[in-house]
Design a protein that fits this description.
Elements lengths: L2 H5 L14 H7 L6 E5 L5 H14 L8 E5 L2 H13 L6 E4 H16 L6 E2 L4 H11 L5 H16 L7 H7 L8 H17 L2 E2 L1 H14 L1 H10 L2 E4 L7 H11 L5 E5 L14 H4 L1 H4 L4 E5 L1 E2 L4 H12 L13 E2 L8 E7 H17 L7 E5 L5 H10 L4 E3 L9 H14 L7 H10 L11 H23 L5 H13 L9 E5 L8 E6 L16 H15 L2 E12 L23 H9 L1 E3 L2 E3 L11 H6 L11 H18 L3 H4 L2 H10 L4 H5 L6 H19 L2
Bound molecules: adenosine-5'-triphosphate (ATP) and magnesium ion.
The site of adenosine-5'-triphosphate (ATP) has 19 residues, from helix 3.
């Protein structure tokens, strides 16, 4: 497109872009072509792209129907649609990669394959079990789950069964069975699945890509239909999704991507932030924008978030920026330790009650946990206080009987002429399937009533945001949501996993179960990159909070159980020194040389001498500055030669490691390291501090 387009660039609805800061504006109003926004949590990436879409449409660059925006969770896609609607955009598609591919495949399949689209396989475990059986591989539930995730990883990273053993060897993958056997299970799985004529989730993407790559007529029709592509959360793109995106683009460059490498939380599934970080290599002429102002959270939350991600290491960490909080001050984040998980849940529910009483709406409160099994304790504790909640992974919403009945009743109602407005029509139709004026007292009946009421609320929302919305438009919206598995918001506290919370925000966030083994999850232990991914997941959790942030953990799983768990290593350096949880940990620590020893990382008491010297548990992660350690060792060997004493007489290895971890800046910090007393301080203090300073200068 040429100059005709750029002259139209200023014809956007007046005021549309007013709510953006200068950098956001630069990205939103960039002429057509590649745009990349690389920025931290809460800096307005999603806001920027929704404004960009609205701007491109309203200034005539593209028609709403030509825009395809994709993201990674159904809820985030729903959030995007809601924001677009708020900007007056109707008709642009905002979907997950899977929902988009499913829709396209359904459309093109009859032409290419000639039959009804194959059914979708909901869970693959049963087929994996058959495949494993045929390959003679053990079929315990745990092995099967691992095999299923391994197959998903291979498909997401475009690795075929034949290539699998070589790729697994090259990338040193921790395979659930010998690589040749995994390949055999994978091959069998594909065969069984194809002969049953079903597709798994990854097939939706694979087949859509193949159709576009191999059928010129389909590709031409598709590319005529869609002209503008936007990807949110681009840091979590898999090679398979990237390949589909390339097929959509077909060599064009109308692509806007936004992401934050420090929120990469799906690399275990094959995702990689590389395409985001290397976007300008692919599109050297791209408009690139970085955002640093955090509009979501109070400075108190932002400061905590900066500390969390400040401790990260590895490639994504290289791109991190310090966030600068823009909102007025709010309460300090709260930390609390409990004896057991039920006690933690009861306390969290109690605190939620207080927030509700203080006027925070239930839909503005979330409890976030690492694994879905944790939700149960919270469901129970919230029910006991009569607090409404909804468990995310609310995919089941559209499977509920009353919701299915409601949708058919609404469909029928569209064919009846009516003078009433859309909200009234919805109420009338739903009265027929059990929506009463007053809610039933509780239990399952109340849950059904809540589900129906949320459908009315959705109608109210639509009526408020879309001009002249009628019942047909409403039913279309419902069908779209059902296809995208995006339930309407029920007025209740959200219970969700950290993964499902990506891209979303709430006034009050409770991060629960922050104990070692859960955050980070047990199986990440011992693998640095897995630990870093867990840290990013924790960062995603922290940055969901606008104002109130609570971080809690329990020392035992069951009520009255042995209190042997430790708080998460990620809390190290976050809990204020004068906090009771910090004091408790100190009191539990073993006394050593008159001082109390506790782990710098997890806060647990230290017993072994080596651990006391290191100042952390042997199994807690080291943040040793390797270069400094080398310098310290070389200084020590010089000194030991001069003094004609063995090196350990100068300082033991453990003491050097502790120095290299803690990087003391002055005498005070130096003597607080175990193994350095007044004598050593006097003899070597100044030299050691000089070595530390020199290493700091690089
Ligand atoms: P995440 O990385 O978590 O997805 P994000 O970068 O996409 O975050 P948004 O969700 O777009 O951030 O924005 C965070 C919050 O800040 C939203 O409530 C948004 O409306 C608000 N916000 C963003 N930019 C501005 C701005 N310029 N002025 C006022 N509010 C803003
Ligand atoms: Mg976002």
């Amino acid at each position: 497109m040429g100059s005709a387009v750029s002259s139209a660039a200023f014809s956007t609805r007046p005021g549309l872009l007013d709510g953006l800061d200068p950098e956001q504006l630069a990205a939103a109003s960039a002429p057509r072509g590649p745009v990349c926004v690389l920025a931290g949590a809460g800096t307005g990436k999603t806001r920027t792209i929704t404004h960009r879409i609205a701007h491109l449409i309203q200034s005539g660059h593209v028609a709403a129907g030509q825009v395809l925006a994709v993201t990674f969770t159904a809820r985030a896609a729903g959030e995007m649609r809601a924001r677009l609607r708020g900007l007056g955009v109707d008709g642009a598609q905002a979907l997950t990669f899977h929902a988009a591919a499913r829709r396209q495949l359904r459309y093109f399949w009859p032409r290419v394959v000639g039959d009804r689209l194959w059914d979708l396989l909901e869970g693959k475990l049963r087929l994996v079990a058959q495949a494993a059986n045929r390959a003679g591989v053990a079929t315990e539930a745990e092995v099967l789950r691992d095999l299923a995730s391994e197959i998903e990883w291979a498909k997401a990273t475009l690795v075929s069964p034949d290539d699998y053993p070589a790729v697994a060897a090259r990338t040193q993958r921790d395979t659930p069975a010998p690589a040749a056997q995994v390949a055999e299970v994978y091959r069998n799985y594909e065969k069984i699945k194809n002969s049953a004529q079903v597709l798994d989730f990854d097939d939706l993407l694979l087949h859509t890509t193949a159709v576009l790559e191999e059928h010129g007529d389909v590709a031409t029709e598709f590319r005529d239909r869609y002209r503008c592509f936007v990807v949110d959360e681009y840091q979590d793109v898999t090679p398979l999704q990237q390949r589909l995106l390339n097929a959509w683009l077909g060599g064009r460059d109308d692509l806007t991507v936004v992401g934050d490498a420090n929120q990469t939380i799906y690399s275990f599934g094959g995702a990689s932030p590389r395409p985001l970080l290397e976007f300008t290599r692919r599109f050297p002429e791209a408009t690139v924008v970085r955002l640093e102002r955090d509009y979501r959270s109070t400075p108190q939350v932002v400061s905590l978030a900066n500390k969390v991600i400040g401790a990260a290491r590895g490639r994504p960490a290289g791109s991190r920026l310090q966030l600068i909080g823009q909102r007025p001050d709010g309460p300090e984040p709260r930390f609390a330790e409990y004896d057991d998980e039920p006690a933690e849940a009861v306390a969290v529910a109690g605190r939620i009650r207080q927030l509700l009483d203080a006027g925070v709406p239930a839909s503005q409160i979330a409890v976030l946990y690492r694994v879905n099994a944790q939700s149960e304790a919270y469901e129970q504790a919230l029910s006991e206080l009569d607090i409404p909640y909804l468990v995310r992974g609310g995919e089941r919403f559209f499977a509920r009987k009353e919701v299915r009945q409601a949708i058919s009743a609404l469909r029928v109602a569209t064919s009846r002429p009516s003078g009433a407005d859309v909200v009234e029509q919805v109420r009338t139709a739903l009265a027929g399937v059990g929506l009463t004026e007053q809610p039933p007292p509780g239990g399952a009946a109340k849950e059904r009533w809540d589900a129906l009421l949320s459908l009315v609320e959705l109608a109210e929302e639509l009526a408020a945001t879309v001009q002249d919305a009628d019942l047909a438009r409403y039913v279309a919206e419902l069908e779209q949501r059902a296809a995208a598995q995006h339930p309407p918001t029920v007025e209740g506290v959200t219970l969700a996993s950290l993964h499902a919370a990506k891209g979303l925000e709430w006034d009050a966030v409770f991060l629960v179960g922050l104990a070692e083994g859960t955050v980070p999850i047990q199986h990440a232990d011992g693998d640095d990159s897995a630990i870093e991914e867990e840290r990013r997941l924790f960062y995603v959790g922290v940055t969901r909070a606008r104002e109130h942030l609570s971080l809690t953990w329990a020392l035992s799983r069951n009520a009255g159980g042995r209190r042997h768990r430790r708080r998460s290593r990620f809390l190290y350096g976050l809990i204020p020194e004068d906090h009771p949880a910090a004091r408790v940990a100190r009191a539990q620590g073993k006394t050593f040389g008159g001082a109390t020893a506790r782990c710098r990382v997890c806060g647990g008491g230290l017993t072994a001498t080596l651990e006391v010297k290191l100042g952390r548990c042997a199994r807690c992660p080291s943040n040793v500055d390797e270069e400094l350690l080398e310098r310290l060792k070389s200084w020590r060997s010089d000194r030991s030669r001069e003094l004609k004493v063995p090196p350990f007489v100068v300082f033991t290895d453990a003491t050097l490691v502790a120095i290299a971890e803690q990087r003391p800046a002055d005498d005070g910090a130096l003597v607080s390291i175990s193994g350095i007393g007044a004598t050593k301080l006097e003899r070597f203090g100044a030299e050691v501090l000089a070595v530390v300073r020199a290493a700091g200068r690089g």
